[in-house]
Design a protein that fits this description.
heterodimer; A: 323 residues; B: two-stranded antiparallel ribbon
Chain lengths: 323, 295
């Protein structure tokens, strides 16, 4: 286990290093940020000063090494626009985004697995076919449009839920969270459900096909022959065998949802990293873009390691040390 | 299939496919959508982007209103008096073109790289697959977003971003198939004939690896359309001069709080119908083509 973690840590660092260069080189190619930062009336001298203050006059590789050196000290540069450390801007907004992502994923898991088992056990029944057809519809729903329609229905027409923001937050382990207050939950509900539709469809379909493939197998027949109740067959025998691919997909989906949170956050004005990154792209705020990408990559890598650990818990045949 | 018959594979595919009524309906809807997108612009009541044809006096009318010049705005108008039906038809065309072009290009790029990787093998294969892994490690939405951040807005750039965000998937699939196909006898025969390498790879190996791609490539078109719409909605995709469905929805977003729901609602319905019909068709195709599901 320790060996596994060390090896994964080294691998992750390599990926991070490669990514940091790709990101840095890529982001560097984006226009000239000076144009959007300095007023057109500025004199040539003011312009030069600003360029050298920001270190934009040095060659690309020199900027990259300065960048790497700063990264190792935990500094990712200062936002051109906000004039504050980029990493600070990102980390301030990270908890809100993570809360939204986790809530969306929970929604998808809690609803998706039972629905999938139900559809998989009765694939030819009306309920089973209904669930599978609706799941394709959910696949096809454009997240941002559904978000708008939810605002239209639940906020404007029915007036049940607030449209924007996080609502009242409380501090939990030094982080502001919404899900512990009623007002926070009311704000969290729509964005989380909106973001959860896609993984819900995916988990439902995957569970259904896993169930369908496992039902004719010997161990399922044996369990039935022993006279076990359906509930026990499903929760103990079936789930153990179909959870591995589902956990894999949940792990992969975590990063997809984290990326798509950009869209949902924009619609519901959820104060996470998403809105910040879109604004930063439009304003060419390079340090913030780089900080966002690196923080996102770190979150992905952590999620991957967690998935591997869950594997070894679910399936004793998986030994982490040998992976 | 109860009685084995001497049907051609294509006919058998059609008859298997038609067993599900929803799948047949989905196919007909899809055909209608594509037809609308390409013939539609000739029959709509106006060219919504020709300022001479729209009148500010018709602005912000709810669905079903009468135009000053006689026609009916079945789905209402926007704040500049643009007929929403016409705008959707034009937007649909842009969305479908971007989705199909980027989908096809992603398949071509991915398949070429994947097949070369499999055929050459060894270190180059290893290197290519590492790059593929790197791309697959990131959600395609994020890759597309970064590409557009670097490239700027524009239809060509959106297509490039969509291709870059999806080629790796195809490369991975094709390589997996090609590694098995490579060892088969017809490949020995092709090598025995001392054909040029390019001809062996693209003339003999590639056509035998394409079948598993059909379903994925079809779904990919649907995904590309959604992705483009999302990016355009966020303001980093297509420019205002090429208003796809995503941009129409984004424009309507500003008016949704004032109750003019139709501006966002109907373009979204058009998007949903397009994407859902493609997905339903692809889903049925997968069931029919999957040997494990065949009775």
């Amino acid at each position: 286990m320790t060996l596994f973690l060390i090896r994964r840590l080294l691998q992750s660092l390599m990926v991070l290093l490669v990514m940091s260069f790709v990101v840095f080189a890529g982001v560097f190619a984006i226009g000239n940020p000076i144009d959007s930062l300095i007023s057109p009336e500025a004199t040539e001298r003011e312009r030069e000063e600003a360029i050298s203050d920001l270190g934009l006059d040095r060659p690309l590789y020199a900027q990259y090494f300065v960048f790497l050196k700063n990264v190792s000290k935990g500094e990712l540069g200062t936002s051109f626009v906000h004039n504050r450390p980029a990493i600070q801007l990102i980390l301030e907004r990270l908890p809100a985004t993570l809360e939204l992502t986790v809530a969306a994923l929970l929604f998808a898991i809690v609803l998706g697995i039972p629905l999938g088992v139900l559809a998989g056990l009765n694939p030819e029944s009306l309920v089973g076919r209904g669930i599978l057809s609706v799941s394709i519809l959910f696949f096809s729903l454009p997240t941002f449009w559904v978000g708008l329609m939810m605002i239209l229905l639940f906020s404007i027409t029915l007036g049940w839920l607030p449209t924007t923001g996080r609502g009242e937050t409380v501090e939990l382990l030094g982080i502001q969270v919404s899900f512990l207050t009623l007002d926070g939950l009311r704000h969290l509900a729509m964005p989380a459900i909106n973001l959860g539709f896609y993984p819900l469809a995916l988990i439902t379909r995957l569970t259904a096909s896993g169930t369908q493939e496992n039902v004719p197998l010997e161990y399922m027949k044996f369990a039935k022959a022993k006279g076990l109740r359906t509930r026990r067959i499903v929760s103990v025998h079936l789930l153990k065998n179909i959870l591995i691919p589902i956990v894999t997909v949940i792990g992969l989906q975590f990063s997809v949802i984290l990326a798509f949170a950009v869209v949902t956050e924009s619609i519901f004005a959820w104060p996470g990293m998403g809105r910040l990154i879109i604004d930063s792209i439009n304003l060419l705020d390079r340090p913030v873009i780089v900080a966002y990408l690196l923080v996102t990559v770190v979150v992905f890598l952590i999620a991957n390691v967690l998935v591997d650990i869950v594997y070894s818990i679910l399936d004793p045949r998986v030994r982490l040390g040998r992976m | 299939m109860s009685v084995p018959s001497a049907q051609s594979p294509f006919k058998r595919f059609i008859s298997d496919y038609s067993e599900r009524k929803t799948a047949v309906v989905a196919f007909l809807v899809l055909a209608l959508v594509v037809l609308t997108a390409f013939i539609g612009p000739f029959v709509t009541m106006q060219d919504p982007y020709d300022l001479a044809q729209i009148s500010i006096l018709d602005s912000s009318m709810p669905p079903g209103s009468e135009s000053l010049e006689g026609g009916t705005f079945w789905l209402g108008t926007d704040d500049q008096g643009r007929d929403l039906v016409s705008a959707i038809v034009y937007g649909l065309r842009i969305s479908i073109i971007v989705g199909v072009v980027s989908g096809v290009l992603a398949v071509i790029l991915g398949a070429s790289i994947g097949i070369i990787s499999a055929y050459v093998g060894g270190r180059i294969d290893n290197l290519i697959m590492r790059v593929v892994d790197l791309f697959l490690g990131f959600p395609s939405f994020l890759i597309a977003l970064i590409c557009l951040a670097v490239l700027g807005r524009g239809a060509d750039k959106v297509v490039l971003a969509l291709v870059l965000s999806q080629w790796a998937n195809f490369a991975r699939i094709i390589r997996g198939v090609a590694i098995v196909e490579r060892e088969k006898e017809y490949m020995d025969a092709a090598r025995g004939l001392a054909l040029p390498k390019a001809r062996i790879v693209f003339g003999h190996l590639l056509p035998n690896c394409l079948a598993p791609l059909i379903v994925v490539a079809t779904m990919n078109v649907a995904f590309s359309i959604t992705l483009e719409a999302s990016l355009s909605f966020l303001g980093v995709g297509l420019p205002i001069t090429e208003p796809s469905l995503g941009l129409l929805i984004a424009n309507g977003y500003e008016y949704i709080l004032t109750g003019k729901y139709w501006l966002s609602f109907y373009p979204g319905v058009a998007l949903l119908i397009t994407v859902a019909s493609i997905n339903l068709v692809a889903d049925r195709m997968r069931d029919v083509l999957n040997p494990r599901m065949q009775k």
